[in-house]
């Protein structure tokens, strides 16, 4: 799995076969990036969260821990 900042940084590892988790608040941008990664046969998981909201990030982290075995 890759952690990247920015759309291009997320697309590069996905094009090489790395699974990518995408964290973006705006759902339209999130869906567009996920779609562009999947269009090149990449694997990406959408994680909508406001990274400036400490509580929201903590909640997302807890949810992901529960589903980690089936992330991809």
UniProtKB/TrEMBL annotation:
It comes from the Bacteria. This is Uncharacterized protein. It comes from Nonomuraea longicatena. The lineage of its organism: Bacteria, Bacillati, Actinomycetota, Actinomycetes, Streptosporangiales.
């Amino acid at each position: 799995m890759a952690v990247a900042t920015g759309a291009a940084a997320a697309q590069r590892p996905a094009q090489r076969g790395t699974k990518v988790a995408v964290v973006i608040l705006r759902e339209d941008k999130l869906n567009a990036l996920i779609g562009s990664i999947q269009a090149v046969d990449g694997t990406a998981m959408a994680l909508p969260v406001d990274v400036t909201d400490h509580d929201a990030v903590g909640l997302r982290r807890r949810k992901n821990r529960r589903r980690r075995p089936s992330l991809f």
